[in-house]
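Sanity check

After download, print the first record. It should look like this:
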Amino acid sequence: MDITFVIEKFILVAIIFGISLVIAMYSTYAERKVAAFLQDRLGPDRAGPAGMFQPLADGLKMFMKEEIIPTHANKWLFMVGPGLAMLTACIGTAVIPWGSAITLGSKVIPLQVTDINVGVLYIFGVVSLSVYGVMIGGWASNNKYSLLSAIRAASQNISYEVAMGLAIIALLLVTNTLSLKEIVEQQHGWRWNVLYQPLGFILFIVCAFAETNRAPFDLPECETELIGGYHTEYSSMKLGFYLFAEYINIFVSSAVMSTLYFGGYNYPGMDWVASVAGPVLAPLIGTAVLFIKIFAFIFFFMWVRWTIPRFRYDQLMHLGWKVLMPLAIANVIITGIVIAIVEKF
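Expected structure tokens:
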């Protein structure tokens, strides 16, 4: 194996991991600022200019707090839970194309860790694994509230993965590929998939809220019923891992939605920009465009949290099984019929 290839991938993984952590860290700051704006107040404003150092202060607090493990908890699984939640949150970034390849002379450097031909299935596999960190942490805590929260999270994830999978099936009927790189390349310029699959996108983003346990689907963390939910017994950086994993999941979900439905790093006029900017700067501009789309989705996650009240659990299940799933099935059927008509004529 070429050592240069290994070094390139290692550097790319390190950069993506660092960006994920920084975005997760400052998402906590953005969350509080968005909440403050919507509630007509200031939010964090003491630590640094405009409170910009607040995430650093919060992170230091997490490191400095006392580490407490309940006496009757399963100690090994209690430690594995938050680590697994953090791991599954981070590995989803491996198949996302962050930009077109950079050309340096005869050297072509792809801005993607790996382009596997089943990238969509990989993302779904990671999404399915993410619930295990919550389940293990809730069960190992030996706390009835934590266990009930973990059961809620598992049943919620299983329920909404069905509608999400059906939404993706309709998209795959249009794209005919499971590779995220090929899906992005098909959306060159303005040919974004959201124009062909508007209902599929709505279904996907609603399910993404449920999969990331965000309001109005944050029933696993319902304070009025379950104290803190599955991380009730956690403190110090173990609690920090759970909180960080949620924000990294939001970042990854936003990146996946931008890639599948909003063209990824594509934007109108990119061919002209590429001819002017050159083979190095043009891909970086595309990457910046992708991150603008991601930040827009992250803001939308936060806006919804501070606007819409939490569902009851029976309403959540009713929406997943009796509303979203029939709509997703209808979307697949309609998409198939339209494609068959177009191909025939």
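If your output differs, re-run the checksum step. Summary of this record's structure: The chain has one domain: 3-344.
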